[in-house]
Amino acid sequence: MISPVSPLPRSAHRSKPEATPYVDLTRAEWSALREKTPLTLNAEELEKLRGLGDVIDLDEVRDIYLPLSRLLNLYVGATDGLRGALNTFLGEKGSQSGTPFVIGVAGSVAVGKSTVARLLQALLSRWPEHPRVELVTTDGFLLPTKELEARGLMSRKGFPESYDRRALTRFVADIKAGKDEVTAPVYSHLIYDIVPGERLTVRRPDILIVEGLNVLQPALPGKDGRTRVGLADYFDFSVYVDARPEDIERWYLNRFGKLRATAFQKPDSYFRRYTQVSEDEALDYARTTWRTINKPNLLENVAPTRGRATLVVRKGPDHKVQRLSLRKL
3.40.50.300, 3.30.70.2570, 3.30.70.2740, 3.30.830.10: which CATH number matches 23-81+100-327? Predict the structure, then answer.
């Protein structure tokens, strides 16, 4: 006689945790990973790095960005070791010297990615293994205003099609290839355009940080339908700065108000006209810009690239990082 099957314990009915390519960490768990990494920034230096409207403080640097600088230093060292293994394998046929370690920093307008990029540049340059750290923003590869107007793209400035993506990818590819000197156009937020005749020169850095809205975008297929190499294909590590859209909108409007009282007041400012109207009218313009340009770009183009990042940094309503997700190897 077959005995009845005993019911499974309640715990056995629980579903297994969903498989994910990331390790999810709380702020406290992440902070503990900095171990003995020293804080090499002071309050005065941080003030110069902080973006307008960003409330980052030394505690945030200690808890979030020191562990990240330690992790990146380990990645750079591991990459050097891998290069040594490759040189051993190639022998005299193709021994290569070091090429720059490239980091991408992505995220929405007003989410604080520029501050993150500047912080990483400052912290990483203080590690003795790689003192030369360069930072390039993709703003310099926006099409000039005349070109955007000719193509009817002024209302889509910041969308992928508003950039010279080929020139941007070639710029990073040349640096990654170890060219002695590579130049890039310069963008001015004051005049809201490319600065004619001005170039940024990058000379064989140890680390290059590339910051921008769409740096994690996959390559577009060519006219022949063949897949091309994209900008992110040259990254050794990438960071996506994340937050809820409603929080980012509030930060954007707050930053616009502060700019209206400061930079927009300058005679050469493209946005000076918004200092000549009432505060309510100016904020109405900013709100419309967010809802018709920046938010659609975030939802359609920027946020979908989040899953391509090595590390996702999630901010709460107060700009403080709450959780982090690190891609497994």
Answer: 3.40.50.300
**pLDDT at residue 94, rounded to an integer:** 60
Residue 227 has pLDDT above 80, yes or no: no
Q: What does the angle CA 233 – CA 169 – CA 95 come to, to the nearest 5 degrees?
A: 60
Q: CB count, 10 Å around CB of 281?
A: 11
Query: 141-166 burial by CB neighbour count: b if 16+ within 10 A, else e?
Result: bbbebeebeeeebeebbbbeebbbbe
AA letter at 125: S
Closest by Cα among 270, 266, 305 to 285 = 270
- Nearest Cα residue to 238 out of 172, 176, 306: 306
What are the structural domain ranges in the chain? 23-81+100-327
pLDDT by residue (tens digit) across 93-107? Answer: 666 677 899 999 999
3-state secondary structure of 191: coil
